[in-house]
Amino acid sequence: MIRDKLIKISERNGYKVVDDPGNLFDKELRIGVNFSYILSGAANTDFMIFLPALLLLILVMVAGFLIINNIFKISVNEDINLLGLLKTIGMTKVQIRKLVHLESFIIAIPSIIMGNIIGISIGKIILNKIFSTNVVLANINLSLVLILLVILFSTIFTLLTVFLSVMSPARYAAKISPIDASKYNETEIKKKYKSDNISLGKLAKRQVFSNKFRFASIVLSMSLSAVILNGVLTYTSNIDLEKGLSDVIVTDYNIASPKYFRYRYYDKEDRLKKTFIDQVRGHKGFKDGGALYYYGDEYRYPDITVEGKNIAPLLIGVDDYLINKQKFIEGEFDRDKWNNGSYAIVGEDSDKKSSFKAGDKIKIKVKNSIKEVQIMGKINYNFSDGLRYYPIIQENQFDESSPELDLEYFYLNPNLYKELIGDNSIMSYGFDVEDSEKENFDKLLKTFENDPDFSYDSRGLQIKSFKDFKNLIEFVGYSLSIVLFLISVLNFINIIATEIIRNMVNLSILEAIGMTKKNIKKYLVKKNLIYSISSLVFSFVVMLLIDKFILIDLMAETKWTTFSFIITPLLIVNLANIIIGILFTSKFYEKHSCNSLVSRIRSLE
């Protein structure tokens, strides 16, 4: 809401903010907001950007919560047998709950300290990367107060997560009898199964789904990192460089006065000097170019109208070289008709459809002269072929409460434009050059910038800007996804290890009644495959929902992206989980089953 804040600051200091172009009176000023913040110009654009960012933050928090919750739930459940023994020697329910919470906080304190050190270090690296790509942010340093606030927030969130995570097992351990607590097993058999055909797959399935809450938390914690990574890659891989550039520049170079590039071309006094164009055209390697002509605020509604239409027409002269760079969305370009007849091309804003169609005849009135023209077709209107700001024109310019008129952009042949306007001031000039001479043209245009009336843009500069933007998103997204992926992998390994240790007696009994170690490994691997495959399915469903309700709308708001569905990151992350599950399960079980069968059963009774 940058614009609203600037308006409040201006009014508080006794200034009136005006939107119309023209001369400013005393205590009046205009506010210009960089179009990067405005995007499509919609009033709710800030929320369209904020809500996906908020959802991403919530996903990260949920991932952290699930991971911490799962680790502590497993750890506390392992200690319930000991708590049952303590209860037999006189410990009360309140003391049991306090003991469980105290243990969890003692474990959490060093984790919080280490987490904050590592987290702030990674955060500073990411922010330095962000600041280094932005001139405005280049000299910003993180204050000690901000770092302390981050530490405070992360500490409170982690302690709250730990507290909530251990509440359920602590209550359970406190209320059950000492005998039941000493025999506590996480798997609660709610119904008996009868089957003549038992298999390792059925056994693994029953074991996994015996505790549905833990199954859901494991799948969620494994899925979120894959979903976030897939979301980041979906956005970055769908950044369309050509589409983004076509909205800003369609030629190799674009030259104009500095005010044009600062979104402040309000007067023909800001026109581009023809001497610059002559020097460019005479330089080695020049191919061809074309100009845009605009009168600034010399003519304003109702000086220019279209008979029978309550609109605010804006007339822009354009050379046919630039028209050939544009894609027609209706009709087609006829050079002979354009140069020899009375034709106009409608520039249609992507956010608002034009009321005119190809073939329509309209009468344009400029003060006392009227000219009938025919609509040849329609092209997309954007910053590459028009003004670099969106004028606000009211029906009555002297009444602030009067309704705002719809804008219609009409491109005219330069001769027809001059006939109507009586002037052919050049607003900007775009041109193409030989690839081998681009470096020389860069040097030439930089020397022109010593003149305060000259500035330029180029496809090379825009490409670099877009690539920096894409690299920045990828760097931040990959950093976040890698951290979450590593945490989810560690959590998955912790789950595998804990289940093997907890069920070592049962596994040893299965081995004692004839099951081979090879079959036991297959049984454990099948359990982990259930988790991995369930995570893949859940990730796929969540990604579809995120694409439909978030990414598609977000990409529609930004003019440099074209949505296409991507699933490769999901497959890669879940394939990594499957491979880790298979390899780690086999190695870990081998390590803990190397003792004799009798000693394993006796030591774990």
In short:
With 605 residues, the chain is an alpha+beta fold.
What does this molecule look like?
- The chain is an alpha+beta fold and about 600 residues long.
- Helix content is about 55%, strand content about 10%.
- The protein contains 20 helices and 13 strands.
- The protein has helices spanning about 1-10, 35-40, 45-90, 95-130, 145-175, 180, 200-210, 210-235, 240-245, 260, 275-280, 320-325, 335-340, 415-420, 440-450, 460-500, 505-510, 515-555, 570-590, 595-605, and strands spanning about 15, 30, 255, 285-295, 305, 310-320, 330, 345-350, 360-365, 370-380, 405-410, 425-435, 455-460.
- The strands form two sheets. Strands 3, 4, 5, 6, 7, 8, 9, 10, 11, 12 and 13 form an eleven-stranded mixed sheet that branches.
- A hairpin with a 2-residue loop joins β9 (about 360-365) and β10.
- α3 (about 45-90) packs parallel to α16 (about 460-500).
- The two termini are about 65 Å apart.
